[in-house]
Design brief:
single chain, about 425 residues, alpha+beta, 5 domains, 5-stranded mixed β-sheet, 20 strands, about 15% helix, elongated
Length: about 425
């Protein structure tokens, strides 16, 4: 039995024991015990259970018997015989016998451990995202971009800098800035975070009535005017323009609102909002783009948010609504749902035809799946990743072209 025990010593679902059926014949218990195998228990007082397992029609004990997970005798090889194939087949037929491991030796098996590679016997998870504090790079508190466990003006400032792309940011910051959880950080998140700061005791509200906004573009000497008239109150706007020029912006007759803009990598970005979520006067505003008379609608993206942070449906009298609402550059638009189990849909937009690669990486930076690669035409694409054969954890979805790389984070929870 020594060889059999050695063969299966590392499998916690295979258990060996020795039973003494006729004590003191011909050796004492101590003598029998000294002949045992290290690590194999010896049963010296048996009320008859083991005897019934091992006894056969010949009224003699076989020297070896094999039992399954239900303690049913499936074989009595004589004297020992080779049972490795039999044991393996029993394991294959036993769904509850999947080998379990504990990588970090904290007493929690990997499949139940919220940080399987980091010692954390208490399983602390302050942000309740099923990723333990010991291995969680983010507090994952929506709106708390600086991870100080408070949502305040400092977080608003950081969210705006992410929208304007004026400073580098981490994936953790992006995730926390995406207050709505739609995979995009924009003025709608700013409005929702401000609402949380102003009325922290009130649950988040959603506008059930879909609002709309009429947009009119006009040229005025060297400038471009964007006139917005909405059928519901709105309190935030965001503009992105594909341009080689460092554009500047003004709001006509709106002097008490925050207006910020930046220019980075061929894109001018502008955002206007109020720290009290006050609405624009008479549901109307005119945006002046200084020196923007040569800008076409195809190069503009516009987002308008109501007081709940819900986007307004945009229409335009010269039929350019499609251009005003699509991204001006290639981007990963969303990952839904997130967290997910077991599948998630990744959406991205390509402003021009090009070669791309969309892949999924685990938290160790290892590529676990390639969703697509090769030439893709201009347009919006949707791909589904099935994660049922992968463990719970953080996964990075990376979209790469010859000139750009963008990523977004997803959390698989089983």
């Amino acid at each position: 039995m020594d060889a059999n025990h050695e063969m299966w010593a590392d499998n916690p679902n295979v258990f060996f024991f020795t039973a003494l059926g006729d004590l003191n014949q011909p050796y004492s218990c101590t003598q029998w015990g000294n002949f045992g195998i290290a690590g194999v228990p010896v049963i010296i007082e048996d009320p008859g259970t083991v005897f019934n397992w091992l006894h056969d029609s010949y009224n003699v004990y076989p020297t070896y018997a094999v039992l399954d997970q239900n303690l049913t005798v499936v074989a009595k090889p004589w004297p020992y015989g080779s049972t490795n194939n039999l044991i393996q087949s029993l394991l294959d037929d036993c769904p509850e016998c999947t080998p379990s491991t504990d990588n970090d030796d904290d007493g929690i098996l990997n499949e139940s451990d919220n940080c399987p590679d980091d010692y954390n016997p208490g399983q602390e998870d302050q942000d309740n995202d099923n990723i333990g504090d010991a291995c969680d790079p983010c507090d994952n508190m929506a709106g708390d971009v600086n991870d100080d466990l408070n949502i305040d003006i400092l977080d608003i400032v950081r969210v705006v800098s992410i929208i304007l792309n004026s400073n580098p940011y981490t994936e953790c910051e992006f995730t926390d800035a995406d207050f709505s959880g739609d995979g995009i950080v924009n003025v709608l998140d700013v409005i929702q975070i401000i609402s949380t700061i102003i009325t922290p005791s009130q649950p988040r509200q959603v506008d059930l009535i879909e609002g709309g906004a009429e947009v009119h573009l006009s040229q005025n000497d060297f400038d471009l005017s964007i006139n917005i008239t909405a059928d519901v109150p709105f309190c935030g706007i965001q503009v992105e323009i594909l341009s080689d020029h460092d554009l500047t912006f003004d709001l006509k007759n709106e002097n008490n609102r925050i207006l910020e803009w930046s220019h980075e990598s061929g894109i001018s970005r502008m955002i206007s909002y109020s720290l009290t979520n006050s609405v624009f006067t008479d549901n109307n505003v005119e945006i002046i783009i200084n020196g923007g008379s040569d800008i076409s609608a195809e190069d503009i993206k516009l987002v308008i948010g109501d007081v709940y942070g819900t986007p307004l449906i945009i229409s335009c009298d010269d039929d350019v609504s499609e251009f005003l609402t699509k991204p001006v550059t290639f981007s990963l638009n969303s990952l839904y749902p997130n967290p997910f189990n077991p599948s998630a849909t990744i959406t991205f937009y390509l402003p021009e035809s090009q070669n791309i690669e969309l892949s999924v990486y685990n938290s160790l930076g290892q590529k676990v799946h390639q969703l697509t690669e090769g030439f893709h035409s201009t347009g919006t694409y949707h791909y589904v990743w099935q994660g049922e054969n992968h463990p719970s954890g953080i996964y990075i979805f990376q979209l790469q072209t010859d000139r750009n790389i963008v990523t977004t984070k997803g959390i698989l929870i089983k």
